[in-house]
Write a structure and sequence with these properties.
Radius of gyration: 19 Å
Number of strands: 16
Distance between the termini: 35 Å
Strand content: 35-45%
Number of helices: 1
Oligomer: single chain
Shape: globular
Order of helices and strands: HEEEEEEEEEEEEEEEE
Strand order of the largest sheet: 5-11-10-7-8
Low-confidence stretches: 7-21
Structural class: mainly beta
């Protein structure tokens, strides 16, 4: 069972001391019962002005061990994602997401298909057609200040200028059609601003490769 949120916040106070060098924002994601919620995306968008420009990045999401790694990513709009096969079997990736539908046809172990560029804000869900439990989630945010919550439920964003922001919070269980949670926060000039974000659900278990009684992946799923 995940640790209670209050215990996690106490741990955070010890591990993340206030710094006078740069403003830090920490979003603490929790489920409806107050338990910490990993894999939530937190993004800060300036209110009353556009987000400053930043160079688009290229990140890699690998297919490895019959799963996507990382499971959840966040990128700035205009960035590119490489879906590289580092597995021992073939994969076939497809996304029906409205902001960027795409397909990467069957590619062999070791292949690195051309990157996919994402220009619109929103959620991308990528599937492997050959292994239907495999999911990768990419949230595209029109801001340079965004992060994914780890197992502790904390999403830490550094170097945030002081000011008023719209806080967007999204989780894979919202899917691509439900809007992110939205609220207003103020970030100070120095130190750490911390906000708790509560999602009104219990997270669904992450799907994994079917396994036999001895813990090995079922042979029927390895023939591709």
């Amino acid at each position: 069972m995940m640790p209670a949120l209050n215990a996690a916040v106490l741990l955070l106070a010890v591990l993340l001391p206030v710094t006078s060098q740069a403003a830090v924002f920490i979003g603490v994601a929790s489920d409806r019962d107050g338990q910490v919620l990993p894999n939530a995306v937190v993004a800060l968008k300036p209110i009353g002005q556009p987000a400053p420009p930043s160079a688009p990045a290229t990140i890699t999401v690998t297919q490895e061990g019959l799963s996507f790694k990382p499971y959840v990513s966040v990128v700035r709009s205009g960035s590119r994602v490489v879906f590289a096969n580092r597995d021992t079997v073939e994969h076939h990736i497809k996304s029906f997401s409205s902001i960027k539908p795409f397909e990467i046809a069957v590619h062999r172990p070791g292949d690195t298909p051309p990157p996919i560029q994402f220009d619109k804000e929103g959620a991308i869900i990528a599937y492997c057609i050959l292994h239907d439990w495999m999911r990768a989630y990419v949230f595209v945010a029109d801001t340079p200040w965004a992060a994914v919550a780890g197992e502790s439920g904390f999403a830490r964003i550094e170097g945030v200028p002081p000011g008023d922001y719209e806080l967007l919070a999204w989780h894979p269980d919202l899917g691509q059609f439900k809007a992110p949670l939205s609220s207003r926060v103020m970030v100070g000039a120095t130190g750490t601003t911390q906000t708790t974000i509560r999602f009104d659900f219990k997270p669904r278990p992450i799907r994994r490769a079917p396994k036999t009684a001895d813990g090995k992946v079922a042979a029927a799923h390895l023939h591709h």
